[in-house]
Write a structure and sequence with these properties.
It is a single chain. The protein has 186 residues and is mainly beta. It is built from 3 helices and 12 strands; from the N terminus they run E-E-E-E-E-H-E-H-H-E-E-E-E-E-E. It has a single domain, classed as Pnp Oxidase, Chain A (Roll). The structure holds flavin mononucleotide. Residues 29, 31-35, 47-49, 52-54, 78, 81-86, 161 line the site of flavin mononucleotide (FMN).
């Protein structure tokens, strides 16, 4: 028997992305975004509230970064999703993360996190709070890469957000091969 749950945000799995930006005094800000996705081969989409300091920063600098949250820093990462730089300007310093300016865009990289997408702002729709960014570069720590430059998910384990229970989950095991397993039904 199926149950109707109404309008919910239960699109599984959801990413735990950390959006990095600089404020008007070049102080780094980082917030958590779960409502984020690829929008094209070189574009990303974020549903991001105009009330956030990060949004105001990005509208000024026209740039942001997206780093993937990992288990080791879950407390620090969640902190960045519940405290606003509108209330605590030095929230990033308090989180214990350290940052370095991206080589490609005017936004901070999080030194402790191994995978970051560096973006320029394309548009922000203030009515719907939809943001689109263009990917300018992706930077990855060598420790999570295979020799051929691909990401090794045995070494890099981004966490996943469960919006139904408000929990973070660890990345799991390989269960299939994309663009391939379905061919068994050809
Ligand atoms: C798990 C989680 C997911 C979140 N996802 C989003 C999101 O997709 N969009 C959004 O606007 N805010 C999201 N937030 C809320 C912001 O991260 C939060 O309001 C943050 O304090 C904003 O910081 P800022 O004002 O310094 O930019 C999320 C928070 C958490 C904990």
């Amino acid at each position: 028997m199926r149950k109707n749950l109404g309008v919910k945000q239960l699109l599984y799995p959801q990413a735990v992305a950390l959006i990095g930006s600089y404020d008007e005094n070049n102080v780094p800000d980082i917030m958590v975004a779960a409502w984020i996705s690829m929008a094209d081969f070189d574009k990303v989409f974020i549903s991001i509230s105009k009330e956030h300091k990060s949004t105001q920063n990005i509208l000024k600098t026209k740039a942001f970064t997206i780093s993937m949250a990992i288990k080791k820093f879950v407390v620090n990462e969640d902190y960045l999703g519940i405290v606003s730089a509108n209330d605590k300007v030095d929230k990033v310093k308090h989180s214990s993360f350290t940052t370095t300016k991206s080589e490609f865009v005017n936004a901070p990289l999080i030194n402790e996190l191994p995978l970051t997408i560096e973006c320029e702002l394309i548009t922000y729709d203030t009515q719907n709070e939809f943001m689109y960014g263009k990917i300018i570069n992706v930077t990855a720590d060598e420790e999570i890469l295979e020799e051929n430059g691909r990401i090794n998910l045995a070494k890099f384990k981004p966490i996943i957000y469960d919006p139904s229970n408000h929990k973070y989950y660890e990345f799991g095991e390989v269960v299939g091969s994309a663009f391939s397993d379905g061919k068994k039904l050809f």
